[in-house]
Amino acid sequence: MPQLNSNEAGQLLLHSQRGSIPVRPVACFPWSEPNNYISLRNEAGMEVGFIDSAAELDHSSRTALETTLRQTRFVFEVIAIENVEDEFELRTWSVKTRQGPRSFQTKLDEWPRTLETGA
After folding, report:
1. How many CB atoms lie under 10 A from the CB of residue 57?
2. Do residues 24 and 47 share a domain?
3. What are the phi and psi torsion angles at 72 (to 5°)?
4. List of residues 6+ apart from 100 with CB closer than 8 A
5. Where are the alpha helices (DSSP H) in 53-98?
6. Rounded to an integer, what distance in angstroms lies between the CA atom of residue 94 and that of residue 15?
7. One domain for residues 59 and 82
8. Do residues 29 and 44 both lie within one domain?
9. Deepest of 4, 20, 64, 119, by most Cβ within 10 A of its Cβ?
């Protein structure tokens, strides 16, 4: 089983016989299985580890993973679009969310998807 912990900067580290490397957890099924089937990716985006279930990890590894996942799973709900500005290959959105005002960028050819409910 992988051994994980967080460094002083809050970065998740994977420990192996070759040493420690920073990793980013990517949930393969984020909504249906939030703590299962987690790919551990290095800085280049390559998978360097895989976790079938966080429950199988030792306590400190599970705590480090769950803390990182909580931070990466933050999803805000947009309730109003204030401004959309096209820039070179990017679109900058200024929005109101239930969590307060936010701004984010998307590629010019990426648009929000319409949900089955029409939202």
Report:
1. 20
2. yes
3. -85, -15
4. none
5. 59-72
6. 40
7. no
8. yes
9. 4
Query: Are residues 85 and 29 part of one domain?
Result: no
On whether the pTM is more than 0.85, the answer is: no
- CA–CA dist 100, 119 (Å, integer): 19
Q: From CA 43, how far away is CA 24, in angstroms rounded?
A: 8
- Alpha-carbon span 68 to 60, nearest angstrom: 12
CA distance 9 to 87: 32
Domain that holds residue 91: 78-107
What letter would DSSP give residue 114? P
Q: What's the confidence (pLDDT) of residue 113?
A: 79
Q: What is the mean pLDDT of residues 53-61?
A: 95
CA atoms within 13 A on the CB side of 42: 8
Token reading at 98? 């239930």
